[in-house]
Amino acid sequence: MLRNLDSPVRKRKVPQEIVYRIREQILSGALARGSKLPSEQELTENLNVSRQTLREALRVLEMQGLLEIRAGISGGAFVAEVNEETAHMGLINFLHSKDLTLAHLTEVREIIEPHFAYRAAQCITEEQIAELEELQNRAKKEIAKKKSSALREIEISFHAKIACIGGNPILILISDFVEYLLRKAKQALQPDEVFSAAVIEAHDHIVAALKAHDSEAAAKAMAFDVKAVGNALQKIADDNQRLTLREFN
Length: 249
Hints:
Low-confidence stretches: none
Structural class: mainly alpha
Helix content: 55-70%
Mean pLDDT: 87
Number of helices: 10
Oligomer: single chain
């Protein structure tokens, strides 16, 4: 029997305590991904709670993306694999009432993205350079067609690829969430082709620095790009009186 799942609940509100105990087991690795929790009857007896209380707790864990509840004879509660979407939703829920602004987003990007470029310049491969160059070629074709939606996705992908080169999963998760917010902002504010042309030019400078494995130049080029994008989006937001990222949904 797994520890902390075989003693009666005594502390927090009962459903919250059950959520806490099971989540602790999942995050510690005691409950592995894909493993099945003990049966409902076994859990209710060991925790000394009602079926209704247990089911309430399991639903919360399912909503958090930690459990998958399956029906049928072979069903039950299984430990789910937490994916990027689940992690993003948790962050979104937390930040929902925080009046997150474009200035906050740009500040975070100015801190982390030059580091991504600096690190990438040290370890980028020829294949990864080719991928970035291919994105740039696609962007130049799309701007000629005036396809803004395609350009926005390419711009986001460019930054995402650079963030992934360093291989730090914590920073990659942060980057993914930041790029998610940036995508929402661009979709709402609809920057024009002049904006995208400036982004493409800035990305060319970043690629050149990465190809030269010049960390300082790569970080500087990235910082310039992030600041310019932040200023341009902020101007559009100000002109349209869009103050917080909540208004971009």
